[in-house]
Amino acid sequence: MSGHLITVYVPRDAAALSVGADAVAAAIRTEASSRGLPLRIVRNGSRGMLYLETLVEVETPEGRVAYGPVTPADAPGLFDAGFLTGGEHALGHGLTEEIPYFKKQERLTFARCGIIDPLSVEDYRAHGGFRGLENALAMTQADIVKMVTDSGLRGRGGAGFPTGIKWNTVMQAKADEKFVCCNADEGDSGTFADRMIIEGDPFCLIEGMTIAAIAVGATSGYVYMRSEYPHATATLRHAIKLAYDEGWLGDNIHGTDRTFHLDVRVGAGAYICGEETAMLESLEGKRGMVRAKPPLPALEGLFGKPTVVNNVLSLCSVPIILDKGGEYYRDFGVGRSRGTLPFQLAGNIRQGGIVEKAFGVTLHELLYEFGGGTITGRPIRAVQVGGPLGAYLPPSQFDLPKDYEAFAAQEAMVGHGGIVVFDDSVDMAQQARFAMEFCVAESCGKCTPCRIGSTRGMETLDKIIAGKNVDANLELLADLCDVMVDGSLCAMGGMTPYPVRSAVKHFPEDFRKKSPAVRVTHIAAE
Amino acid sequence: MNALQPWSAERAMTIVADNRHLRGALLPILHALQEEFGYIDEEAIPLLAAELNLSRADVYGVVSFYHEFRREKPGRHIIKVCRAEACQSMGANALVDHIKKQLQVDFHGTTADGSFTLEQVFCLGNCALSPAVMIDEQLHGRVTPERFDALAAEARTAPHAHPHAHPPGHGAHSHKGHAQ
Lengths: 526, 180
Prior knowledge:
The complex is a heterodimer. Chain A is an alpha/beta fold. Helices cover 41% and strands 14% of the residues of chain A. Chain A is built from 22 helices and 16 strands. In chain A, the strands form four sheets. Chain A has a five-stranded mixed sheet with strand order 2-1-3-4-5, covered by helices on one side. Chain A has a five-stranded mixed sheet with strand order 13-12-16-14-15. In chain A, α19 (470-487) runs antiparallel to α21. Residues 517-526 of chain A have low confidence and may be disordered. Chain B is built from seven helices and four strands. Chain B has helices at residues 9-19, 26-37, 44-52, 56-65, 85-88, 92-103, 145-157; strands at 77-82, 116-121, 133-135, 138-140. In chain B, strands 2-1-3-4 form a four-stranded mixed sheet, covered by helices on one side. In chain B, β3 and β4 (138-140) form a beta hairpin. In chain B, α1 (9-19) runs parallel beside α3. Classes of the chains: A alpha/beta, B alpha+beta.
């Protein structure tokens, strides 16, 4: 091994930092220098097994060997155990890629995340990066759009609209200027895939956006980041600078006549800006008020120009499609849900993290085989799927296959793939109330069902929780939910009733805690 | 956050001049003002309206729409505690009660000693390691009441707010040069 520097990986992902990754890296560095052992520390993205963070990996001839969760105090013991050559230790998990949680996944979008140095163009290229863009640079616009259409890729932000069809509309629009905007306003609780891939593989997003721009004839683009994600924003800004330096962005990309300028904009804590038209308003420097559609953003989007608006995960799926072809991607998945989705296991879950699987995997597999049940050890009572606007599902529904159509039939959403787990201590009436409270706080206020309906919904739920006229108020609540679903301008007001209705439907006992007497008389009266 | 500067119309004009070439410049300018002064001063509203050729109502409308923009000078450190569902499932509501009691403030309030301003947020993207709290720009996961007390004690004794979260080993690069 003489002259060969051992490489140790310590993630720089914000979740890893939140449990002390910087201190772990410092402790390893200190211990190495005090023992006179030269080593190279790479700050990679997360492998997505967040329950093992801080996950330290060592490069060995057999592959990368994992140790976790590591704290700074573990550093001396790891050196004593010979971890630099993959030595055995209580925190050791053997080869990272043989860990069942990881091995059972189908990583397409997250193929590089956690493996490479996120801010090394060289590393990115060594792992297949920019091959999709190189192919795109040699293709016609129509051929690129066709390949994305053929892949079956659907928007990963929530609505599941076919990406290729959206691109085709923008490509065919006539205008002096077009835009590509990436919606990175990942505001749904239980989701962190956008943050992780931007921190772990930022060039993938840059490449996907550049391909989109070439396909539709756009010359400028923006990534709309969240102010709650300072680490991701800093990483992306740095990566964009490196991409400019190496000729992958800017005028005459790699000697061709294609031009694409990319900039980062940061939101300011408004959930509604995850709605595409509110995001466009915000990018224009205005209040994030939802626009009525039509006109579609594809025809009149940012500054009134034809605009592609795609989610981070949609755009990050594009490079591999252009690299390996539409058929390769389409071969994963079921029905009309093609490809893979990075599911995010969150909340009260023993093994939380990213699980990228083809569509069709069931909640049961995700929650128990990957997630290992709750961290509190109590039974799972409910999961919320698809963010704060998604339905709460009871265990009887855990065999639903994860695909857009099967979930839509249950008023549940695949959405952005977030799955939040609750144990049996949860009070579902309080969760229903929170859904309304959240809508009160985050409604843009443009339409009445959302602005007023959410406030009235919260008040009505307060009465139900207090045991006042429960039957009449539940009826009123159901009626209010119908009005919000049917009458709201966008998904904010239109879907806030989903978690409320599902909580009432699947967990009715939680809404009658204070009024068992009322219930008895009611039943008796029937 | 670096040490905050007292409001200065002159300094604000420089910030406007640095950013006015951006398309949709109002939000980036508001962010830059808040980074410099810690809040959006009342005087900034007519100043921005005049400089950007907007009405005062337009500027006020934007400032008041976004939860992130403060109208009053904050404490030395900003504590953002997540109240969204994933954190709720791991006891965020009890953590919020604890924090309010410990700091003797409600949301948007600043502690009597000027150390902390407490804010609520909905999701910090750390949902597999809930509950989450962000102090300045440092994210913390699996925050118990005891861990919060230790983090707050550490921040309180720090002479200034934590520096900006830079990627490890790299400076944070501002990238305004490539904008249109």
